[in-house]
């Protein structure tokens, strides 16, 4: 039985990757270097310290303080968030649906709490029952510590918990913590996830419950394929059925529901 949904933040609920990419690019260019798309992609889901150390290593920076550079980048991100947070399609409606269904909700993110507060303010009070941030003192993802801390705060074990993650680092963290994992993966999917969807736009409470219902029989297979076509959270009467990560059904088909 589903008891809680634990959401990642960046790239899952909010479209913050371009914001972080712009801030990191600005830092690199301030030192007369150019950033690569490959490097930016490799930072996805990483803790701020790990990400900045990777940047320093990439460019062989000596004499620059990692924490000072983290602060520099986060100031840029904070300025962007102060102008508004860009929620990904389906995110806010899914949060509302999960709350309405009586499930507990947690936010599990590598982002520092100072920045997360902007998201919490837009989400509204009572949206999350627990919030675990990157500067809370836990070992960062892919370590399971952030998800274990969130479940502890909720007073739950992993059996009734489903995690929603977009990055391989985050999926690994949730998987090792014992959660069923839904990988929101428009481009790249993790083998550790129980199932995947291209966007939260196509996910509703019934799909989250389906992940938990089938978790004992799942190993990198698509739980959605054994249930009614997706679409509890869609508009315009369209439902979608994503296909398996092993590629046996390439892409995913849209089925028009007659309502």
Automatic annotation (TrEMBL):
InterPro entries, A to Z: HAD-like_sf, HAD-like_SPP, HAD-SF_hydro_IA, HAD_2, HAD_sf, PGP-like_dom2
MF term (GO), any: sugar-phosphatase activity
Pfam families reported for this sequence: HAD_2 (PF13419)
PANTHER family found in the cross-reference section: FRUCTOSE-1-PHOSPHATE PHOSPHATASE (PTHR43481), GLYCEROL-1-PHOSPHATE PHOSPHOHYDROLASE 1-RELATED (PTHR43481:SF4)
Biological source species: Dactylosporangium matsuzakiense
Protein name: Phosphoglycolate phosphatase
